[in-house]
Design goal:
The chain is an alpha/beta fold. About 55% of the residues lie in helices and about 15% in strands. Strands 1, 2, 3, 4, 5, 6, 7, 8, 9 and 10 form a ten-stranded mixed β-sheet that branches. A two-stranded antiparallel sheet has the order 11-12. The N terminus is likely disordered.
Length: about 525
């Protein structure tokens, strides 16, 4: 094994930057190119070992022992001296997170496999999930990117595999599978559950053998299980080509409680060091290395760069749904169910008033009933017990009110269709246009205005053609778009020309009738008074 890029001191390099204020991620393509496009490694098949999991669970600490192994593979004492501080990826004790985004070690290790081929080994550290500053989307994005680009994903857990750990793994891997352009039979490669601080060696021994026995039991699908629990386990099995588990003991109280602990082996418990000496070669020994594959094709370092660029673009876009916390997803489903129930209640009430078999109802009466049913529907929505709080629920109430108004518009159109005069508006309008143009044609022809007469005749002919076409569309159901266009033109002519004229004419007639009635009322008493005088 030889190390590449020795001219600069090796160090962790941030390749995926986390913008905490915007909750977004950005790829530092230049930094990644500098690592992956080195002459000695760019055309080699790549092995990517990544460690992911909850924050403050010792991921960077573990990776630094992997670095020691890669530098001292030929030495059985690769773990170093008892008094040697641990260096490499930055780590520290405490309860606050250390790593953000995704980091890779700048030194790409070239390893000779037993079959004589050379591969490039890349070590990847990821931002811890579920800290106080990351959303579910942030956690899902980092874990998904890590899983999609790694050949071995170490899922770092504490003390046990709990059901929520499996559910989070299901969510994160599904988020990664959505982003991949093609869904392969098993889109990801090797997954290792690394259970830290294992406290039950009397049930399952430390190490790989005990871990696999424990994992088989934990991921077993039973008929007696709830469907939700079965689906989680089936999903995990369907995503990874290989799944294993390693049980790691606690490193000791000096490691856990000493704020000045710097990784010296003398401060770490013997059991931890013994199992660590077995764990790291399982992942990084030349005969155990798993080369990265996508769609059955092995990936080189320069290919991996392009995959990183493609995947980060997907997560920067809006194509993928945003993963949500369990509470938020439940609250949304709860509120949407309440909206659907309230809307169904409104629709049934309106159907009883103006449904398909109900006669035409006056628009004013329909609007009044709409207001009554709308108020009842909103009141029903408010009465349903919902999660998420008042502000969250108000958004769904606004959505409900908008949907009810939209439904009322559709009921109004349906009701208008039952009005025989409304249905006859189009042919009536066309007939009026034909009559007016016929009269204009005759008058202008009599006056010698042949151009205007020809124009009137042309409009009359077009109107006749439109009437015949409209009648055919209504009879046959074909060319519906053309029929809709004719209705639209007829409605426009009616609203802009005929309706104002008819209203104006009716208004003049009403005024004249009122004047005549007023005059008659004044004249009649005067004539009766004159008759009385003569008598």
């Amino acid at each position: 094994m030889t190390a590449v890029n020795e001219e600069d001191k090796a160090k962790p390099v941030q390749i995926v930057l986390a913008h905490e204020d915007e909750h977004s991620f950005e790829l530092d393509a230049a930094a990644l190119e500098k690592i992956l496009l080195q002459e000695h490694v760019k055309d080699l098949n790549v092995v990517v070992v990544s460690v992911a999991g909850a924050f403050r669970k010792g991921k960077s600490f573990l990776l630094d022992f992997m670095l020691r192994y890669m530098h001292n593979q030929q030495n059985d004492l690769w773990m170093g001296g008892d008094d040697e501080p641990l260096t490499g990826f930055t780590w520290r004790g405490g309860c606050e997170r250390e790593t953000t985004g995704i980091q890779v070690w700048s030194e790409v290790f070239v390893v000779d496999k037993p079959d004589g081929t050379k591969v490039a080994v890349l070590l990847v550290d990821t931002q811890g999930a579920f800290d106080s500053q990351s959303t579910i989307k942030d956690c899902a994005t980092v874990f998904a990117l890590s899983t999609m680009t790694s050949s071995v994903q170490v899922y770092n857990l504490s003390q046990n595999i709990q059901e929520d750990d499996l559910q989070h793994l299901q969510l994160f891997t599904e988020y990664g599978r959505l982003a991949m352009e093609e869904i392969y039979l098993k889109p990801f490669q090797s997954l290792m559950f690394l259970i830290r601080d294992w406290s039950y060696p009397y049930e399952h021994d430390y190490g790989l053998k005990g871990g696999n026995t424990f994992l088989e039991k934990r991921l077993q699908v039973k008929q007696s299980q709830h469907e939700e629990l079965q689906n989680v386990r089936k999903h995990i099995h369907s995503c990874f080509s290989s799944i294993s588990c390693f049980l790691q003991p606690h490193p000791g109280l000096k490691v856990a409680t000493n704020p000045y602990f710097d990784g010296r082996l003398k401060d770490i418990d013997r059991d931890f060091k013994r199992e660590l000496a077995a764990l790291v070669p399982l992942l990084l020994a030349p005969d155990r290395l798993v080369e990265k594959e996508i769609g059955g094709n092995k990936v080189t370092c320069k290919d991996l760069l392009e995959y990183f660029k493609a995947y980060i673009k997907i997560y920067q876009g809006e194509e993928l749904p945003h993963p949500k916390s369990m509470l938020q997803a439940t609250a949304e489903a709860n509120n949407l169910t309440a909206v659907a129930g309230a809307k169904e209640m409104y629709s049934k009430s309106m159907e009883s008033v103006c449904g398909g078999d109900k006669p035409y109802i006056a628009p004013a009466d329909l609007e009044r009933r709409h207001e009554e049913f709308r108020e009842c529907s909103v009141r029903h929505f408010r009465s349903v017990k919902k999660m998420g709080g008042d502000e969250f629920c108000q958004r769904y109430q606004n959505q409900l009110e908008a949907e009810l108004d939209e439904a009322f518009a559709n009921f109004t159109k349906h009701n208008d269709g039952k009005n025989i005069f409304y249905a006859a508006r189009t042919p009536a309008t066309i007939c009026v246009v034909m009559f007016v143009t016929y009269v204009l044609s005759g008058v202008t022809g009599f006056l010698g205005l042949s151009t205007f007469a020809a124009l009137a005749n042309m409009v009359m002919g077009l109107a006749l053609l439109a009437l015949c076409t409209w009648a055919y569309v209504k009879y046959s159901g074909e060319w519906r778009e053309l029929g809709t266009l004719i209705d639209l033109v007829a409605d426009t002519v009616w609203e802009l020309v005929l309706k104002p004229l008819s209203e104006h004419y009716m208004e003049d007639n009403v005024k004249q009738t009122l004047v005549n009635s007023f005059k008659a009322s004044l004249t009649e008493p005067a004539s009766q008074h004159a008759k009385l005088k003569r008598h």
